[in-house]
Amino acid sequence: MPQTVRWFIRTSAIYLVLTFLLGAIFLYYNWLSGPVPRPWVIAHLHAGLVGWLVNIVIGVGLWMFPLNKEVFPESGGRYTLALARFCYFGLNIGLAVRLITDLIFSYTHNRLIGAVMALSGIPQVMAVAIFLYIVWKRVRQIEGLKANP
Question: Residue 68: which of 130, 142, 147, 144 has the closest Cα?
Answer without folding.
Answer: 142
